[in-house]
Amino acid sequence: MATGVSRADADYVIGWYAVPTDDSTTVVDTVEQVTGRPARTFAPWAADHAERFQVSRVPAE
User: Fold this and answer.
1) Could you give the residue ranges of the DSSP H alpha helices within the chain?
2) On the CB side of 38, how many CA atoms lie within 13 Å of its CA?
3) 2: closest CA among 38, 18, 49, 10?
4) Whole-angstrom Cα distance, residue 24 to residue 18?
5) What is the spatial distance between Cα 35 and Cα 53, in angstroms, rounded to a whole number?
6) pLDDT truncated to tens, each residue of the chain (61 aa)?
7) pTM for the whole thing?
């Protein structure tokens, strides 16, 4: 493959998404146990941290 990953490895990883196991869709409270706060989805996290991903513009000289 172009990126140096073998076809067998690529097929294996793609298989994770093609046929997910029950464990991959089971919701657990591990994040809350570790951090003391409930887990959030990516969308609220990204909205709360959007400013960190903004490109700052440096004035041209």
Assistant:
1) 7-18, 30-35, 42-48
2) 4
3) 10
4) 12
5) 24
6) 567 889 999 998 888 888 877 777 777 899 899 999 998 889 999 999 999 988 877 777 7
7) 0.41
